[in-house]
Design a protein that fits this description.
The complex is a heterodimer of chains A (553) and B (364). Chain A has 553 residues and is an all-alpha fold. Chain A contains 23 helices and 3 strands. A two-stranded antiparallel sheet of chain A has the order 1-2. In chain A, β1 and β2 form a beta hairpin. Chain B folds into 2 domains: 155 residues, 3-Layer(aba) Sandwich (D-Maltodextrin-Binding Protein, domain 2); 159 residues, Periplasmic binding protein-like II (D-Maltodextrin-Binding Protein, domain 2, 3-Layer(aba) Sandwich), CATH 3.40.190. Classes of the chains: A mainly alpha (553), B alpha/beta (364). At the A-B interface, α6, α10, α11, β1 and α16 of A face α1, β2, α3, β7 and α8 of B. β3 of chain A pairs antiparallel with β2 of chain B.
């Protein structure tokens, strides 16, 4: 009698604990996103669209009737679609090679491919304008064409596909593929009928991120596209900063949000239908050295292409930082330390960048992991919607977010000029990456494993710690690497926030590029090279990070 | 695997992450306080100075100012000039700053119409030429001219005389040689558009629209920003193929001062015709609680000491005529005799229409 009552009380307490845990899981990420994204964006849209005279459709009819704005909407849509498909095709072989094979220098390569992702567009733009010009290695002038934009988009998002898709691929049991091969299927058929279906959740995740990124493309379109191409993002910025036409900017922002939401809802429906539980294998079991000349050729061919495609623009940058007059030297680097009162001291800029990146990574990991757990484990209408809302900051114009902060965050505490706003803005962009890398792995953890542990008497917290956490730790690190890198290179949202004078590396680079003089240009290139190195080193060390046996997976 | 160890790595991880956030916040706060503690006054008055990203002031000057006056200047960056003015307008009911620096004549009337500034007459205005003073609510701090620059080496090598007037640029001899910036996305690009409007006007036989359609026939190239035009297309500063660019009158001295190897002569020159004058102003934000201190900050911006820093840090000319110019500036910088300008009110009324019309002419 007594024993069973204790059991009932125990179960009751456990139930309460579970509910409490769940409400924390819901409240923290929801509160963060609500206060730092939904509320500011709603405020600025309210001011823009409702104005003093109340709501009117005139701004929307202006958007619909002006040819240039309609053109921007159409261009945004098709270039994002084309960029996403192109990136998936170009980056898929590398995702396979990184997932399935081990080769010397692999962890370095994997860190290095993430470098392009974070470089400021002014810098990459300069490299591409040099490469795609008439005197470039290709010999054809692609500047101010759609090709320049598409190539740069693939360059930027290559790592997203390799890491997101490769991340899941690296855990797929290779015996499935081997069995298919054994039964007589060719490589292509094996890929199409065995690997591809299993990889779909990761491919959809990568595609959704690439689509959002290119949908809101700004710097690449401005710099490489000249003035013939314009995205919604560019138009919002133009309408806001050049004309302070808030109604039209607001209407465009609504169009942008609607477009992104519909893509995200479709994605989320798809993910719900598709996700399957897999038996994930440790990376070390899956990856092996290439066997035979065909595999070796494949591995080194893919690596060679990746190196050339991603490395050439980076080499152009590094090369330009070393140019002195007609010769070469390290003057740009040695002069960085020179006391020039008017400029941001580079050491200070590096320090600020690293600090903000730590802050942004921490915020993104905490909020992102909680959100991922909510989405992966609690399948309900709320978590489905949450998944969509979470991705919205990626697809929302930086001007909208920045001006939203400005009009919304003055009460109860005036946060508008607080330094913490910078890592928070970075984290808003980084959280989707953390969630996207963690959710597919979390969902794939077999329920049976978890249930077995539960039946054996392990409390839910312990089940999570000992079953889930070791399995998802690897993807947490990948997410952290992305978050850190995003913060290091971020220039968009923060440049629209009135921010305290703590300049970061991208800001210092931008400042130097805004001045005439060959030495200023070389110094800008030198700082860009340092930013590349810093990114590679931080991603490398984050991924080496281990706690006990976790991270080996 | 961890069954024997109830210590949770998950918690450690969260704690670690929180520590990082805290460390980040703490250090981020300290980096903003740039000045040394004041010796004169134990409790400094804080004045927030909102400005654009190109603003620069030396740490020594800030520290000395705080020692002398007990005023600590906190610099707030707010993007480019357009973004900054718009932030000031949007927050005018609950301002972010006490003083704003960097509003130029192309954006001034927007700020004035929104009643962002309160009038102030600095005693130092006596040393500022009258033609720079526009409105009692703002104080002119510096000026610069947006002018056509050309590559000396290219024209010497090609045996071609460099262009001398705006109209020369429509001459077939200069076909495919000019690169300009999009006025919708670039401040010098906008200034150059205004200079052509000021020169050719909107009515008559030959308007600015006719001028631009001739430029287009003559192969003008448009970039989004100054950086691309100068560092990716301009032959004197890149591997590009355009020897004529829209830049600043102060670009040649910068080429000398910031050369990678010492040179005696700038590789570029300025075409003195068709320059557009940009004047940058500072103003006291309406409703500031630190009025006397804000006035002192305006005086600091007009002081000879800050004014003498301006040429080399922001590559514009000081408004205060008592400020001595650096040698390289005196030698190589050009001050055009008759720069063009447009009334601020006209700019605010017509900017959108002009840019739309320009886009239609050039992007056909």
């Amino acid at each position: 009698m007594d024993g069973s009552r204790e059991q009932v009380i125990g179960a009751d307490r456990r139930d309460r604990q579970r509910r409490l845990r769940r409400s924390i899981l819901v409240a923290v990420p929801l509160g963060f996103l609500g206060y730092f994204f939904v509320y500011p964006v709603a405020s600025i849209l309210g001011i823009s669209l409702f104005g003093e005279a109340g709501f009117s459709f005139s701004a929307f009819s202006a958007v619909a009737s002006r040819g240039s704005l309609r053109g921007a909407i159409w261009f945004t849509l098709w270039q994002a679609t084309a960029s996403t498909i192109l990136t998936l095709i170009v980056a898929m072989p590398a995702a396979y090679v990184f997932a399935r094979f081990s080769f010397p220098g692999k962890s370095f390569f994997r860190a290095a491919i993430t470098v392009p992702f974070v470089l400021p567009t002014v810098v990459v733009g300069a490299a591409y304008l040099a490469m795609l010009g008439p005197n470039g290695p290709l010999g054809i002038d692609l500047r101010q064409t759609i090709w320049a934009i598409l190539i740069a988009h693939v360059f930027y998002n290559y790592a997203v596909v390799v890491r997101t898709v490769g991340g899941l691929w690296a855990h797929l049991d290779p015996r499935l593929e081997e069995a298919a091969r054994m039964l007589g299927a060719g490589r292509w058929r094996t890929f199409r009928e065995v690997s591809l279906p299993l990889l779909r959740p990761a491919i959809a995740a990568a595609a959704s991120i690439v689509f959002l990124f290119t949908f809101t493309s700004f710097g690449v379109v401005l710099i490489l596209g000249g003035f013939e191409f314009s995205t919604i993002e560019v138009e919002i910025w133009r309408q806001t900063t050049a004309f302070l036409d808030l109604p039209v900017a607001g209407a465009l922002a609504v169009v942008q949000l609607l477009g992104i939401s519909s893509i995200l809802v479709a994605y989320s429906r798809y993910q719900e239908r598709r996700s399957t539980e897999l038996q994930l294998r440790p990376v070390t079991e899956v990856a092996r050295r290439p066997r035979g000349w065909r595999e070796a050729g494949l591995v080194w061919g893919v690596l060679g292409f990746t190196g050339l495609f991603l490395g050439a623009p980076l080499a152009v940058l590094a090369g330009r930082s070393l140019r002195v007059g007609d010769g070469y030297g390290v003057d740009a680097y040695s002069s960085l330390g020179r006391a020039d009162s008017s400029l941001v001291p580079p050491a200070e800029a590096i320090g600020n960048s690293v600090l903000f990146a730590f802050g942004a990574t921490a915020i993104a990991l905490i909020i992102g992991t909680m959100a991922a757990a909510l989405i992966a484990y609690h399948r309900s209408a709320i978590s489905r919607w949450f998944d969509v809302v979470l991705m919205l900051p990626l697809g929302t114009s930086a001007v909208t977010i920045g001006f939203g902060f400005l009009v919304a965050l003055d009460t109860p505490i005036d946060l508008r000029t607080a330094p913490i706003l910078v890592p928070i803005a970075h984290a808003l962009v980084a959280i989707p990456f953390v969630v996207r890398t963690e959710v597919p792995v979390m969902r794939s953890v077999r329920t049976r494993l978890r249930e077995a542990a539960g039946v054996l008497g392990a409390p839910p917290g312990r089940v999570w710690r000992e079953i889930d956490l070791p399995l998802i730790f690897r993807s947490m690190l990948v997410g952290a690497g992305f978050a850190f890198a995003i913060s290091l290179g971020e220039f968009g949202a923060t440049s629209f926030i009135a921010r305290p004078d703590a300049p970061t590396l991208p800001v210092a680079i931008f400042q130097l590029l805004g001045r005439a003089g060959a030495a200023n240009f070389s110094q800008a290139m030198a700082l860009s090279t340092i930013l590349m190195g810093l990114t590679a080193v931080s991603i490398l060390s984050i991924e080496r990070f281990r706690i006990g046996e976790m991270g080996e997976f | 695997m961890l069954a024997e160890h109830p210590k949770q790595p998950g918690l450690t991880l969260v704690a670690l992450a929180f520590l990082m956030v805290m460390a980040g916040c703490a250090t981020a706060t300290t980096v903003t306080s740039t000045s040394v503690p004041a010796t004169g006054s134990p409790d400094p008055i804080e004045v927030v100075l909102m400005t654009h990203d190109s603003f620069a002031i030396s740490e020594e000057l800030l520290a000395d100012f705080q020692n002398e006056t007990g005023i600590e200047i906190k610099v707030l960056r707010a993007g480019d000039t357009g973004a900054m003015v718009n932030q000031a307008v949007l927050t005018k009911d609950n301002p972010l700053a006490d003083v704003i620096f960097g509003v130029d004549n192309t954006f001034l009337s927007r700020a004035l119409d929104a009643d962002v500034f309160d009038p102030y007459a600095s005693p130092l205005l006596a040393s500022v030429p009258n033609e720079l003073e526009t409105d009692p609510r703002v104080t002119p701090i510096d000026f610069g001219d947006v002018c056509i620059n050309w590559d000396k080496g290219y024209f010497a090598g090609a045996g071609l005389a460099p262009p001398e007037t705006l109209l020369d640029l429509t001459d077939p001899a200069y076909r495919d040689l000019l690169v300009v910036q999009n006025p919708a996305t670039s401040s010098p690009g906008l200034a150059f558009l205004y200079s052509t409007i000021a020169r050719f006007g909107e009515t008559g036989d030959y308007t600015w629209i006719d001028y631009w359609s001739e430029l287009r026939e003559n192969g003008v190239l448009v970039t989004s920003g100054w950086e691309e035009a100068y560092y990716s297309y301009f032959t004197a500063a890149s591997d590009g193929d355009r020897p004529i660019v829209v830049s600043y009158a102060s670009s040649p001295p910068f080429e000398v001062i910031y050369a990678t190897e010492p040179i005696d002569e700038p590789p570029t020159a300025v075409m003195t015709d068709g320059c557009f004058r940009q004047i940058e102003y500072a103003g006291i934000v309406t409703g500031t609680e630190n009025l006397p201190a804000a006035e002192q900050v305006i005086d600091l911006l007009l002081s000879t000491r800050f004014q003498e820093e301006i040429p080399l840090s922001m590559f514009v000319f000081p408004a205060n005529e008592d400020a001595a110019l650096p040698a390289a500036f005196v030698e190589f910088a050009v001050v055009p005799a008759d720069p063009l300008s447009l009334p601020g009110g006209e700019i605010e009324t017509n900017a959108r229409r002009w840019i739309t019309e320009w886009t239609e002419v050039v992007n056909r």
